[in-house]
Amino acid sequence: MALITLNKLVIIGVGLIGGSFGLAIRKAGIASNIVGVGRSQENMQRALALGVIDEIATDLTSALEGADFILLAMPVGQTEHIMAQIAPCLEHSTVISDAGSTKQDVVAAARNHLGVHLKNFVPGHPIAGAEYSGVLAAQNDLYINKHVILTPIEETQKMAIELTSALWLACGAKVSHMRMEEHDEILAATSHLPHILAFTLMNYLHKNSNHSENLLRFVGSGFRDFTRIASSSPEMWRDICLANREALIKQIIAYQEELSCLQSMLTNSDGKALKESFSQARKMREDWLNRET
Ligand SMILES: NC(=O)c1ccc[n+]([C@@H]2O[C@H](COP(=O)([O-])OP(=O)(O)OC[C@H]3O[C@@H](n4cnc5c(N)ncnc54)[C@H](O)[C@@H]3O)[C@@H](O)[C@H]2O)c1
Ligand SMILES: O=C(O)C(=O)C[C@]1(C(=O)O)C=C[C@@H](O)C=C1
Are 55 and 33 in contact (CB under 8 A)? Predict the structure, then answer.
């Protein structure tokens, strides 16, 4: 028996993240009616056929009428436009949250458009996902044992935070709170930098391979592991990189310095320094894995 119930859940952007949220909430038996708002008719028809949503919204006013909770799960570059569109249709008790990978830009858009509804807005970010996009990739267990970071602002009401937390907990997630500035700085290092390293490795190999047909023919699982995330959505990652560009640029500069250090070790044939560097990296990864289990 679910402890919370929603008469109407509205998901704006019914792809991997929004679709997985819908499926998990449906599995938990919380929502009577799940309405999807989308950009691609084809994707929305699939969402309906897969049972992720009960209805496809025809217009925002009727979609948001009587909504208890709205999840924004489209690429972060759409947030400003969507906030402007939903603001006039919001009811006083509707709680709004998002799943965007960056938080300061999303909060700025909320401040620009939500007015009296700002108190009902709970910025959020599930640290779970995949390199696949669209509702076909949605899974009802995507959030089980995964972290969700909420970055409430001073205006955010306790009631809105409690409802948002309860919904993510019902999806099986672990909820934490963080300042949005800290969120964007940390995620630039642990999520945004690794993605651009994977994208740029593929581009670098493409440009420098002389199109040798053997280049990728004999790659091992190391290459597969390292580059998995280069299969991720270009639109989503363009938006994330632009939204968090200052923090990301800092990370790129620091990473280039680290690469230069390694280059010097090679230039000097400094095996001792190389071994120390790799040992330190391995220890950090092992300590992290041990803490995880
Ligand atoms: N993919 C991940 O691993 C991951 C993880 C955590 C958070 N996020 C964040 O979640 C959000 C969604 O990512 P995703 O992986 O589900 O992407 P996705 O491409 O699978 O889904 C996004 C959906 O939003 C729709 N959309 C785009 N513009 C729209 C608009 N103006 N109005 C309505 N719908 C619109 C698209 O048609 C698509 O169906 C992004 O903000 C992303 O940063 C992604
Ligand atoms: O597992 C993946 O494929 C992901 O990229 C998920 C991932 C990440 O871990 O960096 C990507 C973006 C997010 O905002 C959160 C999670």
Answer: yes
Ligand 1 neighbours by CB, cut-off 6 Å: 12-18, 37-40, 43, 73-76, 78, 82, 99-101, 125-126, 129-130, 133-134, 233, 236, 240
What lies within 8 Å, CB to CB, of 10 at 6+ separation is 34, 35, 36, 37, 57, 63, 64, 67, 69, 70, 71
Q: Model pTM? A: 0.97
Domain boundaries, the chain: 6-178, 182-292
Question: Hey, what CATH topology would domain 6-178 get?
Answer: Rossmann fold (3.40.50)
- CATH: 2.60.120.200, 1.10.3660.10, 3.30.450.90, 3.30.300.160. Which one for 182-292? 1.10.3660.10
Yes or no: say if 103 and 79 are a contact pair by the CB < 8 Å rule: no
ipTM of predicted assembly, 2 dp: 0.99
Per-residue pLDDT of the chain (293 residues; tens, 9 = 90+): 457 999 999 999 999 999 999 999 999 999 999 999 999 999 999 999 999 999 999 999 999 999 999 999 999 999 999 999 999 999 999 999 999 999 999 999 999 999 999 999 999 999 999 999 999 999 999 999 999 999 999 999 999 999 999 999 999 999 999 999 999 999 999 999 999 999 999 999 998 887 678 889 999 999 999 999 999 999 999 999 999 999 999 999 999 999 999 999 999 999 999 999 999 999 999 999 999 87
